């Protein structure tokens, strides 16, 4: 699972947490952020789009997209518990080696 889905599931566990998102418009593979806050989580993460807007290198964005596709194809795992700690033994590389 991506961290995005894990974070949005925390609303059920934390009493004062409320999910909101910035409305978007997607056309021809381009995302426009509409500067409008709407209730609930977004239907997906736009982290790679934000990274592109921030000017990160195209090779890095391509690698991040490949990793995201791989993670999404594995399906969503159980959401994390707010009391759960995960130990990661290996960090995935953002760069092809």
Automatic annotation (TrEMBL):
Q: Which Gene3D superfamilies match?
A: P-loop containing nucleotide triphosphate hydrolases
Ordered alphabetically, the record's keywords are: ATP-binding, DNA-binding, Nucleotide-binding
GO molecular-function annotation terms? ATP binding; ATP-dependent DNA damage sensor activity; mismatched DNA binding
Give the matching Pfam families: MutS_V (PF00488)
- Annotated ranges, domain DNA mismatch repair proteins mutS family: 1-69
One cellular component (GO) term of this entry: cytosol
Listed GO biological process terms: mismatch repair
Q: Name the InterPro entries for this protein.
A: DNA_mismatch_repair_MutS_C, MutS, P-loop_NTPase
Extract the PANTHER family matched here: DNA MISMATCH REPAIR PROTEIN MSH1, MITOCHONDRIAL, DNA MISMATCH REPAIR PROTEIN MUTS FAMILY MEMBER
In Swiss-Prot or TrEMBL terms, this protein is called DNA mismatch repair protein MutS
Organism encoding this protein: human gut metagenome
């Amino acid at each position: 699972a991506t961290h995005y889905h894990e974070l949005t599931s925390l609303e059920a566990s934390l009493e004062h947490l409320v999910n909101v998102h910035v409305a978007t418009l997607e056309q021809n593979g381009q995302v426009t952020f509409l500067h409008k806050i709407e209730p609930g989580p977004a239907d997906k993460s736009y982290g790679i789009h934000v990274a592109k807007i921030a000017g990160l290198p195209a090779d890095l964005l391509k690698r991040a997209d490949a990793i995201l596709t791989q993670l999404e194809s594995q399906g969503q795992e159980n959401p994390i518990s707010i009391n759960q700690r995960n130990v990661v033994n290996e960090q995935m590389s953002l760069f092809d080696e």
